[in-house]
Amino acid sequence: MHMTAVERPGRRVVHVLRKYDPREWGGTETHVVEVTRRLAALGWGPEVHAPAGPSEPDRALGPEVPLLRYQAFCPFLGPAEKRRALVANAGNLATFDEPLRLAKDAGLALAHLHTAGRIGGAVRTAMRLTRRPYVISVHGPLLARKSWLEQDTARRLSGLMDMGQPIGWLFGARRVIQDAARVITFNEEERRALSEVVGDRAVRLDQGVDLKRMATGSAQRARERWPRFARARVVTLVGRISPQKNQVLAVRAFAVGAPEDHHLVLAGATVDAAYGEQLKQEIQALGLGERVHVLGNLDAAREVPDLLALSRLVLVPSAHEAFGLAVLEAWAAGRPALLAVHSGLADLAGAIGPEGLSVPTLEVEDWAQALRQALANPVRLDVAARAGAAQVRQRFSWDVVASKVAELYQAVLEEGARR
C-alpha cells in the first residue's frame, strides 16, 4: 500500500522495519503501530517503511501514518524452505531501494530503525550521507544474550551460503549501533550491555498495552469461535511459533503438570517451519493431540482478547524477550501470567513482585511444578491476575511511551542543530 506522507517540516520521521505482515504479527509491529499513531497525534509526521508484503490494505496504522513498501531480498543461497524462514523471522535481508529513497527525501528529519543488520546499515548510510540522525530500537537479543543469539543464528543459517557480506561491509552494517544518536532498549539487562558500547546514548523505555482493546474480550465469543475446547479449562501461550517463544517447553511442562481437564492453546504464526514440525511431533509423541491446539495467527484486535478472556493462565516461557508484550496483554485482560525470569521478563517479574507468578529457570521440571501449583490454587491465580491488572493501569501506557519517544526525537534533533 503506497500513500503520500503528510508534510510536517522538521518533524517527519520514518520508521524502518524488516517486516510488516498482518498475517505474522508480533510485538515489534504492535509497538510501531501504537507508537506511530500517538506520535501523529503529538504533531509529528511518522511513516512506516517495510519490505514488500501483502497486497491487501493495511488497517492497523490508520490514515495518519502512511505505509510505504521498499524492495528487499534475501542474499543467501540454499534450500528454499530455510530461505523462507529467514524472510519470516530475523533473517539478515538487504536493500538498495530504501537507502536511495531516504537519501533523496529532503523533507525527512529523522529515521527510526527497528532492525539492525544490512537493512539497518543501508539506512545508516543514507542518513549519514545526508547529515541527518537516526535512532534504533532493539526489539530482540543483541549484546546481553550474545551467546544465545549466536547459537540461534548458527542454527538458522546451517546449510545456507551468505552472499550478502559485501553488502553489509558497503553499508557499515556493523556500525549501526555505534553510530546511532540513541539506542532504545526495553530491559535493563540490554541497556547495561549496550551502555558499554555507546555510553549514555543507550536508553531504556517501557512498552505499553491497549487497555480498551484487551477489555473487549469475550469468553462466550471464544467458545463459539473454537468449539473444540469450549468446555475445557484453558491455558494459553500467545507468540510466534519459534524457538524464542519456547512452545516445546510449554507442551512438555503441560504434559506433566496440567490436570486432565485442561487444554493448552498455542496462538501465533509459524515463522520457523522446522520448529513448527518439531512442535507437532512433540504433541503427538506425548499423546496430547486432543488437548493441545495450535491455532495459527490470530487477529490482534478481536481474537486475541477473546482467547485471553477464556484462559485461566497465560504462559510466557520464552528463551528471550526484549520486553514481553504478551505479559502486559494477559495482565490487561485480567489474566495471570506465568513467566520466565530473564531479559525483559525479569523486569516485569520485578515490577509485579511476589504477587506474580514466575519460574527462575527454563527447565521442564520446574515449569511443570509451577504449572501444577498454580492451577491447583484458584486464590493464587486471582491474586496474580489482580496484581498484574494494577500494574498495567499504573505504569504501562502507550501514551507515556509515545511521549518519551517524542522527547527523545526532540533532544536528538536539537543536538544535531547545535552541531
TrEMBL record:
This is Glycosyltransferase. Gene3D superfamilies: Glycogen Phosphorylase B. Residues 222-380 form the Glycosyl transferase family domain. The keyword Lipid biosynthesis does not apply. Residues 26-201 form the Glycosyltransferase subfamily 4-like N-terminal domain. The lineage of its organism: Bacteria, Pseudomonadati, Myxococcota, Myxococcia, Myxococcales. Keywords: Transferase. It comes from Corallococcus exiguus. One of its GO terms (molecular function) is hexosyltransferase activity. Coiled coil: none annotated. It comes from the Bacteria.
